Amino acid sequence: MKIAISFAILAAATVHGAVHNSTVSATSAADKFPVIGQMGSSIEGASVNHKGELFAVNKTHFLSLKTGTSDPRNPRLVGPGDKTSYFASSRFTRSHHVLIGDALGHSIWQQDYNGTVKRRWHGRFAKRAYTPFLINDKLLQPNDFTINQAETYLYMSGMNYTATTQAGEHGDVWFYNIKTGTHKQVAKDVMRNAGIHRCNGIDLSPDDKYLYVTSGQNYNDTVISTKIYRFEIDPATGEPRNPTTVVDLYQVLANAGVKARERGMDPDGMRMDIAGNLFITLNAIPGVLRWSTTIPGNATYIPLETVDAPSNLEFGGEDGKTLYIVGRCQDREKACVDAYKHNIPGRAITNLRLSGPPGTGNSTITPDPGTEFPTMPNPPNTNGSSSPSDADQEEKRRELLEWIKVVEKYIAKWLKDYNPSKN
C-alpha cells in the first residue's frame, strides 16, 4: 500500500513545515466503474448526482462511469466531435439540471434530468442537437466552473496554453449572474498585478465567501510556477475581487519530497469539502494535495494507485465522503479512476442534497433568503395489503391527489418568488 505524506504549511507562499507519514491512500475503483475503459486520455470533468453516482466527460461525451449513460432513461450525451466543441467539465445542480462546460464552444450546455437537452436560439448553434445554458465568445474556454450554494452565481476559469504565458493575458476568471444573465470578467489589470497566468481548477469555500483558482506559468514551453489564488466574494454582488496567493504548490510539494517541478506538474481540477479542505489534482504526477484553507500548517499529499496523471475529482458515494479521482493511466492513453475515503463530505454533493426540487433531500444549511425551495410534505403511504379493496384503493388515490395539490402549491409559490428558468 502506498503511504501518504502529511506535512505542515507555516505560511501561504513560504513552506518550512516538518513532513510526517500517514496511512491515507487512494486505490483503484475501476471495478465499480466499468465505463472508465471507454473514456480515453481526454477524461475530465468529474461530477456526481444527488445519489453520489460518478459521471465524467471526455472531449465528446458526458456519461455515467457505471452505466455508460448520462441518464438511466436516455442515451449518453454526445458532442458534435468537431473543432467547435470540447467537453471539459460538468456539474449537477438542484435548479439548473446538469451543466457541461465546453472549452472550445465558449459555453456551458444544460441537460435536463430526464435526458432531454434545453434548446435555445443562439445563431450559429441553431443546427446543433442542443444549445448552451450560457455562451460567451469572450471566454478563453471555460476549462472548469463552480456554482454557489444558492445556485445564483457561476464562476468560470480558462486558459490559453502558450509556450510563454503572460499574467492577465493567458488566463481568465469570469462571473455569471444566473438571475440576470450578465457576465463579468475579472479585470486583466487585477489578474496581471496579482501574477495570475493560466487558470484551471476552481472552487468556492463552503460558506461561499472565497473563490480558489489555480495558476500555471509557462516559460519556453516549461511550467515554471504553479500557485493557488484566493479571491474574496463581494457579498452584495457575488463578484470575485482582491486575489491573493495562498499556496505555492512547487514549494509545498518540494518540502514534502515530491519532485513536482522536475516532472512538470500542472494543477488541474479542484474540489472542496464542507470543512474547508481543498483537494487539488496534480497533473503529471500520480497524486492529489489536500490543503486546509482554515487550519494553517495542515496539508496531505495523497498518492494514487492507478491514475498517473489526474485531471479531475469529485466527492460522491452514499455518504458523500468518497473522493473519486479520474485521469490518465500510466500508459497515458487510457483513463483510470481511483477512490480515496475521506471522513468529511464534499461541498458540491452537500449542496446538491440541500432542500431543493423534489428528490434532492434536505439539509440544515440555509441558502440565501428567497432562493430556497420550501421543504416538501412527505407523500402518503401507498403501501398496503397485496389485495386491497376498492374502497382502500380509492382512499389511497384520494390521499395521493391531495398530496399532489399541496406540492403544486409549494412549486407555484417558489416559481413565483424565485424562478431561475426566467433568466
* Uncertain ranges: 7-22, 116-129, 356-376, 418-423
Cα radius of gyration in angstroms: 22 Å
- Percentage of residues in DSSP E strands: 35-45%
Shape: globular
Number of strands: 26
InterPro entries: 6-blade_b-propeller_TolB-like, SGL, SMP-30/CGR1_Lactonase
Keywords: Hydrolase, Signal
Region (Disordered): 351-396
GO molecular function, one term: hydrolase activity
Question: Any overview of this molecule?
Answer:
- The protein is mostly beta strands and 423 residues long.
- The protein has 2 domains: 4-352, 6 Propeller (Neuraminidase); 374-423.
- It has helices at 188-194, 249-255, 347-352, 390-417; strands at residues 4-7, 19-22, 27-28, 44-48, 54-57, 61-64, 77-78, 87-92, 98-102, 107-111, 132-135, 144-147, 153-159, 171-177, 182-185, 198-204, 210-219, 222-233, 240-248, 266-272, 277-283, 287-292, 299-303, 309-316, 322-328, 335-341.
- The strands form 6 sheets. Strands 2-1-23-22-21-20 form a 6-stranded antiparallel sheet, covered by helices on one side. Strands 3-26-25-24 form a 4-stranded antiparallel sheet.
- A hairpin with a 5-residue loop joins strand 16 and strand 17.
- The termini are far apart.
- The model is unreliable at 7-22, 116-129, 356-376 and 418-423 (pLDDT under 50).
Question: What tags apply to this protein structure?
Answer:
single chain, mainly beta, Neuraminidase, 2 domains, 6-stranded antiparallel beta sheet, globular, disordered C terminus
